[in-house]
Write a structure and sequence with these properties.
124 residues; two-stranded antiparallel sheet; 2 helices
Length: 124
């Protein structure tokens, strides 16, 4: 995402500089950081503008793809948190159910008469 933003900003800056320092005539002097780089004719300036436009489009595309990916990851993270919370509630419900069942079983064992197994008498 940061690379995309940098490409967008740089292409806008180069485009603005090209328009601001547009000289009249058949050749244009191209300077960078105060140093003369080259002279370009009108066709070269036109092609350079197309390249700058493509760099801008690539930067915008990179930013949009990163945004979509970030939204998808955020949604996946929210779903995982929801699932973990549901699992925790289910665990607590099952633990409560188990403790209730253990209490019932313990009470039944305390009330059972030795030598008898619930409703039947044990014979030897």
């Amino acid at each position: 995402m940061i690379v995309g933003i940098v490409l967008v900003v740089l292409s806008v800056a180069v485009g603005v500089a090209a328009v601001a320092f547009n000289g009249a005539g058949s050749t244009h002097e191209i300077t960078a950081f105060g140093q003369h780089v080259t002279n370009a004719n009108e066709t070269q300036v036109f092609v350079g503008g197309i390249v700058i436009g493509l760099v801008f489009c690539v930067g915008v595309w990179m930013v949009s793809v990163a945004g979509k990916r970030r939204r998808a990851l955020r949604a996946e993270f929210r779903a995982a948190r929801r699932e973990a919370a549901d699992a925790g509630r289910e665990r607590d419900r099952l633990a409560e159910q188990l403790s209730t069942q253990q209490e019932i079983t313990q009470r039944e064992q305390e009330t059972t008469v030795p030598g008898r197994h619930r409703d039947r008498e044990v014979t030897s």
